[in-house]
Write a structure and sequence with these properties.
By secondary structure, the protein is mainly alpha-helical. The protein has 20 helices and 11 strands. Strands 3-4-7 form a 3-stranded antiparallel sheet. Strands 1-2 form a two-stranded parallel sheet. α7 links the parallel β8 and β9. About 35% of the residues are buried. It binds one RNA strand of 78 nucleotides through α4, β6, α6, β11 and α11.
Amino acid sequence: MIRTRFAPSPTGLLHVGNVRTGLFAWLFARNLGGSYLIRIEDTDQERSERQFEDQIYEDLRWLGLDWDEGPDIGGAFEPYRQSERREIYRTHAEHLIEKGHAYWCFCSEQELDQAAEAARQSGEFWKYPGTCRDLSKSDIQKRFAANDPAVVRLRVRSGVIRFRDIVHGDMEFASDVISDPILLRSDGWPTYNYAVVVDDAMMKITHVIRGDDHLSNTPKQVLIYEALDMPLPEFAHLSTILGPDHTRLSKRHGATAVSQFREAGYLPEAMMNYISLLGWSPVSEGSEILPGDELIRQFRLDRVNKSPAVFDTHKLNFINRHYLKTSPAAGELVSRELQRSDWMPQAEGDSWMAMVMDTVVPTVDKVSEIPDRLTQMLEFSLEDSSDIQDTLGDSGAIEMLRQFLAELDSRDQLTTAQFREIAGKLKESSKRKGKQLFHPVRAALTMKSSGPELDKLIPLIETAAKYDLHHVARCRDRVRDFLVRYG
RNA sequence: GUCCCGUUCGUCUAGCCCGGUCCAGGACACGGCCCUUUCAAGGCUGUAACACGGGUUCAAAUCCCGUACGGGACGCCA
């Protein structure tokens, strides 16, 4: 039975690099019909906050992930928050001491720091010298009696440490470069390297999937597995995600938190699809648009790339544009955005939505751009005529527009069908067609030389005007005002 | 300083383990063409990469050695 986990620290918003790890572990488990669980690594009491933990669940759910065990839903290996597992870490540490795999260390943090600093200054390699490795029982008693602060350290064995990494291959480290790691701090809290191993072992995690910044920590952890007499899991260390300047992705690069992408109007399907393509590639060539179930079906951990990946907003946008046009969830999202920005008529919401989905949504990268795009399409300002100079200098065009206005005056709300009929008449009387015909009409209607097809734009204008959305003016008024000013 | 990891089109990558089918394939971006009243979309198409240097071999992106550059670990952070 495959078991993977995602183990974030609740010290901030969930990051793109982090979710990628969580996503890959999820895809892997689901592909093989295994279990996926969430564990919260909150042993850093200073920086951990409950609010971040809740945000993490929300972000993961939004993305479309689900889990079989976790702090919020429980499971067979509770508790799933490290802060609630202190007893467990302590008990295991005591066993390790009994078996001689670990020992109490009373060396002061300050002294050790100084020694390490001195070594670094002189450019020398430094590791913990093992001062407390062989303290006698009575020495230890004395120190405890004196209330000296103590940590528990692992006794690093000699010899080569080997483990398998699914993405990097076989790994080999010499143990003599490894300092005896601290398992329990003097305040009784476990260190990261110790807590992960105890938890992963006890929770029967079969595949440890995480960022490759942990690759160099793994030999230490392997030693802890050995001391605990627990079987080694398979490891998979994923590369880092970089910004466009090839440095680690961070706030400097703009949006990096999952919640920021959600707020910007990206669809979860698009996010999942794009992120899965960062360091992994499907076997099939051609389109890389793959919905969640297809990602699960195709995902293979051994096809994960070792080298760092640069986050590319262009490609994310491309994928998001696709889902905006095809996802059933897009309509709901667009509708909410229209309501939020007062671009939704009280009545006729359905036909208005259909128009928006058909003519404005295909022109944006993300939902949040829709209000601006609508403004841009529907605004009408007589002031700036720079875009339509050719129409202004064309008396034939102006003459035609007068006829156009006459036709409009006899009609209440202009429909697409009526517009086509009028266009047919104008074509006949003015002997104009194509660009000659439509360009001046567009100019009088929008003061611009480009935009959506008039067939689609006109009902958009008329509907918006009917409900006075953002003070959009109706077609008749536009043409009249245009002729008053430029005719 | 020591140890570890990484390096294929601008970007994400396939190929590398099991050398020839790769004068390197796909996707995004970019350019061109088509469609079209215009823009976008869509269809077609083009430009573009094996970090460098040695070796092994009839043959190397693929195997070996070295160099350079980038990243990580060496914490009572995770």
